[in-house]
Amino acid sequence: MPSLADAQPPIALGALDGRYRPAVAPLVDHLSEAALNRQRVNVEIEWLIHLTDAQLVPDVRRLTPDEQAQLRAVVTDFGTDDIAELGAIERETVHDVKAVEYYLKRRLPAIVGDDAAGLGELVHFGATSEDINNTSYALMVRGAVEQVWLPRARALVEQLATMARELRDVPLLSHTHGQPATPSTLGKELAVHAHRLTRQLRRVARQDYLAKMSGATGTYGAHVAALPDADWPGIARAFVEERLGLTWNPLTTQIESHDWQAELYADVARFNRILHNLCTDVWSYISMGYFAQVRGQGTVGSSTMPHKVNPIRFENAEANLEVSNALLDVLASTLVTSRLQRDLTDSSMQRNIGTAFGHSLLAIDNVSRGLDGLDAVPAAMAADLEANWEVLGEPVQSAMRALAAQGVPGMDQPYERLKELTRGRRITGDDLREFVRGLGLPADVEARLVALTPQTYVGLAPQLVDHLDVDPVDAPDAG
C-alpha cells in the first residue's frame, strides 16, 4: 500500500489546510510560517533603514530612497522561491532568524553595491532573535485581527443584528431552566447575543500590540557597548512606534512579555464562547420548530432520513469554537510565563496562533451560512404560546401585589393563589379570565388583565431591540 505521506501534491494533515481551507485561506498571509519569515525580513529591513537614517555609526552612509525602495521590494515580492531559499539556509544554520539575516545579506550587493560589506554588518545589529520575532508576531497578529478576523466577525454580528431588527415583534415562549417562562420576542433574544458579541469586538478593536527592541536581556547591553553615546531606548521606541506602528514596551527580559497576547486571546475566546451560546440557542430554536432551515439547503440532511435537515452549520461551529478556545486558552496561560530572562516555550506555542484563529474564523463562516438558511416560523411560536396560558400567572399576581400595597382589599396572598391555579397543570384562556374576573379587581386593571394573552405579554421586548448598536466604535483602520 503506497504511503499517503508521499503523495503529490502533499496531503494536508489538518482540516484547516484540507477541506476547510477556502474559509481560512486569508489567514495564511498573516499567520503562516511563510508569513512569519516574510515579516522577519520586513523587520530586519526596517531596522537596517532605521539605523542608517539615524546616522549612528560614523562613516556609514544613509541608504538612498531608491535603495530603501529596493529593499522593501524584497518584502513585497516575497514568494515561493524565497520561501524555498530561506528553508535551505535554515537547514544549514539550524536557526530560523539567522537564516533571515543571511538571506538579506545575499541581496545587499545587488542593491547597495560596494557598500554591501559594511552595511551588511548593520543587518541584525544589536538584535537578539526575539527582537525580530516579537515585532514580527505583533505585526502578524495585528494584521490577522484587523484585516481578516475582525471584519468577518463584524459582518456576522451585523447579520445577526439585522435578523434581530426584522424579528423584533415576533413573540415567542421563553424557556428558563427548560420550562415555559415569561414570553419575549425572537428579535430581542437575538439582540442579546448581538449586543454581547459587539462588546467583545470593541475590546478586541482597542487592543495594544506591544513590542521591544532591546537586546539579549532587555538591557541594550550590546548596543551601548558598541555605540555608547546613542539614545538606545529612544531609538528603539521610535522604531517600534513610528516605523512599525506598534506600542513600545520599555521593560522586558530577552522576550517581550506577551501579556498583550494573553489579553487579546482572552477577548477572542470570550467572543467565541458567546458565539457558542448563540449556536446552542439557535440549535434549540430549530429543534422546537421556531426556525425552519429552508433557504440555500441543497445538502443531504441525513443519509437515511430524507425529511431531515440537520443544523450542521451550528454544530460544526460549536466544535470549531471549542478547538479554537482550547488553543487560545493555552496560549493565554502559557505565553505570560518565561523562566528567568528567557526560555523557548513561547517559540513553539506561538506557532499555533494561526490554528486558533483559523478555527474561530471557520466557526464564524459556518454561523453566517447557518443564519442565512433560516426562516422564522411564527406559527410554531404562536402555538407554543397558546398552549401555555399559565405564564400569565406572573402578571396577574404582580398586579395584585401592587394593589395590595395600595391597600386594596381582597388582594392577599397573590403569589400563593396563582401558584394554586397554575403550578403543575395547564390552564386555558377561559380558565385565567374566569379567575381574574373573580378577584374583585378595579375595573381598569381587570380589563387590562382579561385582554392579556401569552402572545401580547412581551413587555418592552420589541423596543429593547432598538438599544442594539453594533457600529464598530473605536475600530482601527482596515488597511
Automatic annotation (TrEMBL):
Keywords: Lyase, Purine biosynthesis. It is an enzyme of class 4 (lyase). Gene3D superfamilies: Fumarase/aspartase (C-terminal domain), Fumarase/aspartase (Central domain), Fumarase/aspartase (N-terminal domain). Residues 338-458 form the Adenylosuccinate lyase PurB C-terminal domain. Residues 19-317 form the Fumarate lyase N-terminal domain. GO terms for biological process: 'de novo' AMP biosynthetic process; 'de novo' IMP biosynthetic process. Coiled coil: none annotated. Its EC number is 4.3.2.2. It holds the Pfam family ASL_C. It catalyses: N(6)-(1,2-dicarboxyethyl)-AMP = fumarate + AMP; (2S)-2-[5-amino-1-(5-phospho-beta-D-ribosyl)imidazole-4-carboxamido]succinate = 5-amino-1-(5-phospho-beta-D-ribosyl)imidazole-4-carboxamide + fumarate. One of its GO terms (molecular function) is N6-(1,2-dicarboxyethyl)AMP AMP-lyase (fumarate-forming) activity. The keyword Lyase applies. PROSITE patterns: FUMARATE_LYASES. Pathway: Purine metabolism; AMP biosynthesis via de novo pathway; AMP from IMP: step 2/2; Purine metabolism; IMP biosynthesis via de novo pathway; 5-amino-1-(5-phospho-D-ribosyl)imidazole-4-carboxamide from 5-amino-1-(5-phospho-D-ribosyl)imidazole-4-carboxylate: step 2/2. Catalyzes two reactions in de novo purine nucleotide biosynthesis. Catalyzes the breakdown of 5-aminoimidazole- (N-succinylocarboxamide) ribotide (SAICAR or 2-[5-amino-1-(5-phospho-beta-D-ribosyl)imidazole-4-carboxamido]succinate) to 5-aminoimidazole-4-carboxamide ribotide (AICAR or 5-amino-1-(5-phospho-beta-D-ribosyl)imidazole-4-carboxamide) and fumarate, and of adenylosuccinate (ADS or N(6)-(1,2-dicarboxyethyl)-AMP) to adenosine monophosphate (AMP) and fumarate. Belongs to the lyase 1 family. Adenylosuccinate lyase subfamily. This is Adenylosuccinate lyase. It comes from Barrientosiimonas humi.
